[in-house]
């Protein structure tokens, strides 16, 4: 019987597939029938990256989601798809056939074109006589339109740390789009009972993932969660990755664990390949070996320009361990970059040429200075923009000099909620704000959390630009219109057991034309 490691080990076939995108000897001819009659659509459906006339729809065939190859064989399967204006599919507007290929883990990405702007659509798939769950999506507004937009912001969903209760609230509140800002999976081993979930998982989930098939299996485990599936089916998602989709605290081609360069190149390629396979991303975003183009620009009419960043792939190595440390010569080096030169130029050019009311950056790690040490000395999280002061200065000075309107940064990673004003000079509280950052807390990572801890109290005491913090689990729910941006920090009272209750912990507002935020 095949195993994950025998299928795609860290050498040989694994390297060939992750680095070139193909495996020799695979049959690419669609087949009409399979003898396995188990449900195929066990991982649900998803949509993403909406444009005014298009959206990506996604699914994966996996009758045995935690088995090697998802329980599939090595043949291609024809998958029919439909997009309709109504949930009963009486008004189908687009349909076609895609191919679920084994070299892509039998995933399907369809870039549906020719749709109407700012409209809800329903979609589904059919394969081997089975029909998928129905998903709902929404296209972006037309370029000249300026509707109010609602969005959810989420990150960090360690499967073993808790249930995805917050996604129930995401669905109830009916957002136009969901932004996911990294740590969709975690690369570390999952125990035999999946942590607090008390759910048996195969024994080979116990180790840290390295091979392509191991990354694929980890996505499958996460995607079996019903609340995550419901959130994907309720609205389109716009996604980017952080570190744990590959390895904790990786930077560029530098491994956290000191893995030799060539081995880490293969691991990075494996992580990128599995990430793209399991996200509702376009075909032209599929990775080229150990490289993937994730930074991109999406526009929501004249309401918002959204720049999605990648602060992992092109960064210099973080100073020391990347933990909370005093500033040093490395972190203060003006030449250091967290985005790479090309992405930084692209970001500033995009912001400069925006004609939208709100200029939004969706990215991974905290941009505001976050000092947690009482007194005049500083202790900062070096894995964030705090360890790349040169990058932060260039971006924030660029925002100021270009007079970028209503600059809002949305961030994940910290496992805590933090709302801050963004200033060119954080050491001087009188420096005018040039924008606002909202850091969302984690969906489950860190287990239940608390309202405040010692670090949170220090953040409020030592950083005048920090307006709010909390260490509870949850997400960020935002509404933006022509006059203001409203952010609600939605928290759940528990995640280590199911059935938690969601509530609004704090509401903060940014007014049009007035950089910075305040509690409502």
From TrEMBL:
Residue ranges annotated for the PhoD-like phosphatase metallophosphatase domain, each copy included: 151-489
Domain Phospholipase D N-terminal positions: 43-139
InterPro entries the UniProt entry points to: Metallo-depent_PP-like, PhoD-like_MPP, PhoD-like_sf, PhoD_N, Phospholipid_Metab_Enz, TAT_signal, TAT_signal_bac_arc
Domain of life: Bacteria
This protein's name: Twin-arginine translocation signal domain-containing protein
Organism for this UniProt entry: Kribbella capetownensis
Classification lineage: Bacteria, Bacillati, Actinomycetota, Actinomycetes, Propionibacteriales
